[in-house]
Amino acid sequence: MTAVTRGRVPHLTALLSLVSLALVFGAAGGVIPQTAVPRPPAWLLEAIPTVNVLLSLTAIVTITTGWRAIRRGNVDRHRLLMATSAVLFATFLVLYLYRLVVLGGSQPFPGPDAIRLYVYLPVLAIHILLAIVCIPLLYYVLLLAASHSVPELRKTAHARVGRIAAALWLVSFSLGVVVYVLLHVIY
């Protein structure tokens, strides 16, 4: 697996990114039929946003701690924390997409139009844009990490791309928390 992946990191990154983004846009656009997934009990559907914000907050901690670990030279801790962050993100995304498909798309903003126009929509747009940009960056650094030894990894773009990916990921997760607060706490 490692030898196969090593030479194909850019191609695998592109393929995985396209598949992931197709699923996201398909779920968000209502292209995936509601009958494609089982209908959950109402309490579970209502719990998903809260579970997702807890996953996001936990991911913020693991990304930040993982970043600090690698700056201190602790590669094993960094790998564990970043792998945990990736699992948290994947879990978040599966729950988010499941809820989107079940509901038939995203829900409207329930607050005042001025807040929707000048606060909610800009925050949501930046959150979504960063999440889209992060997907190929994350696949790229994860595939590099999975297919190279630590000494080999130092000769790749892993650290440079990883810093960018982690920074954008942190901002995206943080803005996702703001979106949650606006949708489920304030309004």
From TrEMBL:
This is DUF420 domain-containing protein. GO terms for molecular function: cytochrome-c oxidase activity. The keyword Transmembrane helix applies. One of its GO terms (biological process) is respiratory electron transport chain. One of its GO terms (cellular component) is membrane. The chain crosses the membrane at residues 43-67, 79-98, 118-143, 164-186. It comes from the Archaea. InterPro entries: Cyt_c_oxidase_su3_a-hlx, DUF420. Keywords: Membrane, Transmembrane, Transmembrane helix. The keyword Membrane applies.
